[in-house]
Design goal:
By secondary structure, the protein is mainly α. The protein has one domain. About 75% of the residues lie in helices and about 0% in strands. The longest helix has 18 residues. It is flat. The relative contact order is 0.14.
């Protein structure tokens, strides 16, 4: 839920989290609530990760 007055970072995370639900769960509604929330959180974190950190994490795994 987007609440006025909260910090911008929290608002951006909330929007990214809800986008994660749309992207990940529109065609997979059978996911349990706990799984859906964790997946949406992971999506939001990945989406908002700074570019330099994303590059470092990707190069570590290659």
């Amino acid at each position: 839920m987007l609440l006025p007055g909260h910090q911008g970072d929290r608002d951006r995370f909330t929007l990214a989290h809800e986008l994660g639900h749309l992207v990940l769960h529109t065609f997979r509604p059978w996911t349990t609530h706990g799984q859906a929330e964790e997946e949406a959180n992971q999506f939001a974190m990945a989406l908002m990760m700074p570019l330099d950190r994303a590059r470092a994490r990707m190069s570590d795994s290659w």
